[in-house]
Design goal:
Structural class: alpha+beta
Distance between the termini: 34 Å
Largest sheet: 7 strands, antiparallel
Radius of gyration: 16 Å
Mean pLDDT: 84
């Protein structure tokens, strides 16, 4: 489970680095007029998938919840670990939002990060219709772009059909809750 967290952080850092390589063509000019409007509301990942919903999706009780965040890239993460026979299972929700970025850069947005990841997995990804604006399954799970938000939901091996079904259900619920929170 810790390995999944490390993999996710590596993806986020690679995304930021790739987006950051685009350069600054502003010659020191202020970018504030070029920014698209972004909601100032900061959303927690557990607002998208609650403990109760995680338990329902996995079919086991949550034993532990770990939260982390990386303000530099606007990432908040929640990982549910389960008890009993499902103690080797997890459900991780990662949410990237510009409203949580410490120093927002118009070149680095949740959409640009989503696009970089999508381009890097283009041959391996499985497109999912009907969840968010765009969604696909690739390492480490379901990637969803919904409005100004990019989320990744992980449950383990994405080639197992059971895990894909869990990801689709979790993605649909997360987008539904995101819409309730932002409207």
């Amino acid at each position: 489970m810790k390995r999944t967290v490390v993999i996710m952080l590596i993806f986020v850092l690679l995304t930021v680095l790739a987006a950051g390589c685009s350069g600054d063509d502003n010659n020191g000019k202020d970018n504030t007029s070029d920014k698209s409007p972004v909601s100032a509301q900061v959303i927690e990942p557990n607002q998208l998938i609650s403990k109760e919903v995680a338990e329902e999706l996995i079919g086991a009780a949550v034993a532990d919840v770990q939260k982390s965040e990386q303000e530099a890239v606007g990432v908040k993460q929640c990982m549910y670990e389960f008890s009993g026979e499902a103690s080797d299972r997890f459900l991780q929700v990662t949410l990237n939002q510009q409203s949580f970025m410490k120093n927002p850069n118009p070149a680095i947005t949740p959409k640009s990060m989503f696009d970089v990841i999508k381009d890097n997995f283009e041959e391996e990804l499985v497109v999912i219709e009907g969840i968010g604006d765009e969604a696909f399954i690739a390492t480490p799970g379901l990637h969803v772009l919904a409005g100004d938000y990019y989320m990744v939901i992980a449950v383990g091996n994405t080639s197992h059909e059971t895990n894909r079904d869990i990801l689709k259900a979790a993605g649909a619920k997360a987008v539904e809750n995101l819409e309730l929170l932002t409207n």
